[in-house]
Amino acid sequence: MKKLVLPHGEMELHQNYAVLRVFENEHICLEKAKGTFEILKSFFRAKNFILIAHRTKNYSIDKEVFKNATLKNFIGFGVVSNLPEARNRAIEEQNYFDRNFAFFEELQEAIEWSKTFFK
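Above: the chain's sequence. Below: its structure in token form.
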């Protein structure tokens, strides 16, 4: 596992998945997301991966981020949170993401879900 601190959050990179935790009250615009996607592209190269957003804090994301999530090997997105507003936002975000998408209340559930893609 590799841990990184980003200007807008923290990310853990594992063999087949990444866990992203965004800092409180951040706004994730397309430019910030592009930096994160560049890290994912560099780490996973052409290998398929799942991105797990562990939403323990409140923050916002531009819809453009999902429309521009063009890495072909980014095969699934998991959202983990027990915050009601995060669940509502995830339901809306799902409309902009055309790949595997799931919502969880526990991080370990999301990690287990990600592993099902690599058996």
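The chain has a mean pLDDT of 93.
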